Known about the structure:
The chain is built from one helix and ten strands; from the N terminus they run H-E-E-E-E-E-E-E-E-E-E. By secondary structure, it is mostly beta strands. The chain has one domain. A four-stranded antiparallel beta sheet has the order 3-5-8-7, with no helix packed on it. It has a four-stranded mixed beta sheet with strand order 4-10-9-6. The chain has a two-stranded antiparallel sheet with strand order 1-2. A hairpin with a 7-residue loop joins strand 9 and strand 10.
Amino acid sequence: MRLRLLIASSLVVAGLTVSACNRGGGSSAVPSGPQQSASTNRHGGVGALKPIPMVSRDTKNECPSSKYLYCVDITPSNSGPYVCFSSGSSCGGPQESPPYYAYGIIVNLKDKPARKLSEYWDPYPGNPTGQYIVETGTLKSSKRVKYVDQVYVCLEPSGGSCGPVSSIGLIPQ
């Protein structure tokens, strides 16, 4: 109980700190339950929780580090996982406590919801948990970021105790 309270407090403080320090990047609401507004943070991490890339980063195309934690190529043949969150140092281990409720909001560059992409987390909730991105329509190939995956991690299923975590650039292939 004490650990859960400490982690929840850290998430709230980190979220407020990051929101105050963020240099733009738009905002979005955490889905489910009572809606909370939070700015995204390209640097990633809430307390000791860090995003772990699960696919090779795109290094051949432009990926401004001022906007994105990193960029990945998305393809219809690979749904992921694209990113993982774990309180440990890797995502291959057994489930740990507390479980995390992770959310991803995929938007286009005008901050509007992407209609041809959907995402889900498995396991949900989980610690570790991985995000999968599925193309629900045909995307035009690009050499630039066309979509942004805004990822949040929460300690409660209702969307409470969330921290803004990261913005990941998505490049359709």
